[in-house]
Amino acid sequence: MDNHNQGSFRSLPDCSCANKKALKYRPYYYEDQLLGVCCTNCSQALLEERFLFHPDEDNTRPSVTVNDVVLKKQLKIVTESNTTKIENCKSLSNILKVGDHITWQRRFGHWHHAIVLGEPSN
Length: 122
Description:
The chain is an all-beta fold. The chain has one domain. The chain is built from no helices and seven strands. The strands form two sheets. Strands 1-2-3-5-4 form a five-stranded antiparallel β-sheet, with no helix packed on it. A hairpin with a 5-residue loop joins β2 and β3.
């Protein structure tokens, strides 16, 4: 578990909803590396390029630098055609690949989101 503080951004991205409060951004960290941020007002995600669901092939996507990390706007993801429900979690290596976005629901209706970084270490 990381002990990163949501208010620890040295710079804030300009969000289309005009959010200017550091506590209204949820950071995505892996160890000490910032992977992206999500505006909790409007749910707009800004991610490091390698985690974008739709690659920025023509390099025209809006980007910002947050704490020395370049983050790009995540386009809306159409999930109806790309959704796979995984029933058995014992063998995920043949289903998931680096960069995949995964979600799961916990009690009380809370949804969680993660980005696949690689195979787990034993």
